[in-house]
Write a structure and sequence with these properties.
Elements (H helix, E strand, L loop, with lengths): L4 E7 L4 H9 L6 E10 L2 H9 L14 E2 L2 E8 L6 E4 L8 E6 L6 E6 L8 H14 L4 H11 L4 H11 E3 L1
Parallel strand pairs: 2-4, 7-8
Antiparallel strand pairs: 1-2, 1-6, 3-4, 4-5, 5-6
């Protein structure tokens, strides 16, 4: 089984500092990615890539996108350089360029809660999480602790709490 990676992406970055800024954005938990190819570049080629990520490159053409809820990426490596993750989404340029972030961990990874494509109302989200937790037979005091924590802040705090407690997809 391959290691699960999370990457924070910059969309259509003009400069590398935009990629670095996206990687520092702690409000973004990152995207699950699957490495479908590794592209090894020389240090000079890598530097050329990060200097102009929007330039067309033959080796990116027609790759990327999503498969099974994971972004398909090309890992770009070079000697003494940090690994970049590129999702051209079918294009021939670095449409999405990102850096790896620590894998978020959750308290109950076996409890999967589908939030995407559903009502984004805070109470609806709480209800989805509560039902999933009960279905997984979590103790009632744990469910109450989750709800209390989730309600203790704003909407972003609610979402972050959901992701810290459960596997949200």
């Amino acid at each position: 089984m391959s290691e699960e990676l999370f990457v924070r992406f910059a969309r259509k970055p003009f400069r590398f500092d935009e990629v670095e800024a996206a990687a520092r954005d702690t409000d973004d938990l990152g995207s699950r990615v699957s490495i479908v190819e590794t592209k090894e570049l020389s240090a000079e080629e890598y530097d050329d890539f990060i200097a102009a990520p929007l330039r067309d490159r033959e080796w990116l053409a027609g790759k990327g996108g999503y498969l099974n809820k994971k972004r398909q990426v090309i890992a770009v490596i070079a000697p003494e350089r940090q690994t970049l993750y590129v999702d051209p989404s079918g294009s021939s340029y670095g449409r999405y360029v990102g850096l790896r972030v620590p894998t978020p961990s959750c308290r109950y990874p076996e409890v999967q809660v589908r939030l995407s494509g559903r009502d984004g109302n805070a109470f609806a989200i709480l209800g989805h999480c509560q039902r999933a937790a009960r279905k997984a037979c979590l103790p009632e005091d744990e469910i109450k602790a989750f709800i209390a924590e989730a309600k203790s802040g704003d909407y972003n705090h609610l979402l972050t709490t959901c992701m810290r407690w459960f596997d949200c997809v």
